[in-house]
Design goal:
mainly alpha; Serine Threonine Protein Phosphatase 5, Tetratricopeptide repeat
Length: 264
């Protein structure tokens, strides 16, 4: 799986939820020891202090697990999430967060189980369907992954990562036309992201549409001409299709590379 990208995407969601939870938690507890602990150290260290109140104990486990995830302490997060589910097995977000942790650790079979539980509890959540699709993709079950990623897109049609994930699964199944459509939609939503243009280039080249791959990168250079590797790809594509601009792009690439080396 593409762990770096998955980490970036899901971590943003988890971090956003983390801060919301912290705010709610502090407001709920008031001027208690928990609120003071959060204010002073930005972490909850001992949830056992709140075992007498099951609601507070669960909230503490939830928040502490999110902090652990944001700090890449995945096994600490697993301990808290598993304990939470032992006491309350009805919260889909806990299953989903645990699924993310398992994906990051390469435990895709376990990720599938808990992500499926999240979707069963709340089938109308885009992120839960997305996480399940990612877990299935990690297991090599690309057709099933596409099913849940399509549901995620239907629930949230403006989330770039959903299209990227479905495009990736379609590439695995050599569904290049569908992958192109997914990457084009992703670029429509976030044209400034160069990684999307690289993905589209790969899909076009697999499809045999080199002219379209060239045009995709040319459109990106009009948005941001600073990315050096774009010109390397432009040069390579021009060589393949016999475009006379190949030498021009190679010259730009070499000039930008030399300038970057001097600045570095």
């Amino acid at each position: 799986m593409h762990k770096a990208k998955n980490s970036h995407v899901v971590s943003r969601i988890i971090q956003m939820n983390l801060w919301i939870s912290l705010i709610i938690f502090v407001q709920f507890v008031g001027q208690s020891v928990i609120a003071q602990s959060i204010e002073q150290s930005n972490r909850i260290t001992d949830c056992n202090l709140y075992k007498s109140n099951n609601g507070l104990f669960l909230q503490c486990l939830d928040i502490r697990s999110k902090i652990a995830i944001s700090e890449d302490r995945y096994y600490d997060a697993i301990d808290d999430l598993v304990e939470y589910l032992r006491l309350d097995s009805t919260n889909p977000s806990i299953y989903s967060n645990l699924g993310f942790v398992y994906v990051m650790l390469g435990k895709n079979d376990l990720a599938f189980e808990v992500c499926m539980a999240a979707v069963e509890l709340n089938p109308n959540s885009g992120i839960y369907n997305y996480n399940l699709g990612i877990a299935l993709s990690g297991l090599g079950k690309y057709s099933e992954a596409i099913k849940y990623l399509t549901t995620a897109i239907q629930l949230d049609s403006l989330n770039v990562e959903y299209y990227v994930a479905r495009g990736r699964s379609r590439m695995r199944l050599e569904m290049f036309t569908g992958a192109v459509k997914d990457y084009l939609k992703a670029i429509e939503i976030a044209p400034e992201r160069v990684d999307l243009h690289f993905n589209l280039e790969k899909a076009y080249m697999k499809k045999g549409s080199l002219d379209n791959a060239l045009n995709s990168f040319l459109s990106y250079t009009r948005l941001d001409g600073r990315n050096i590797e774009v010109y390397s790809h432009l040069h390579a594509i021009c060589i393949k299709i016999g475009d006379k601009r190949a030498s021009e792009f190679l010259k730009i690439y070499n000039e930008k590379k030399e300038s970057a080396e001097k600045e570095g």
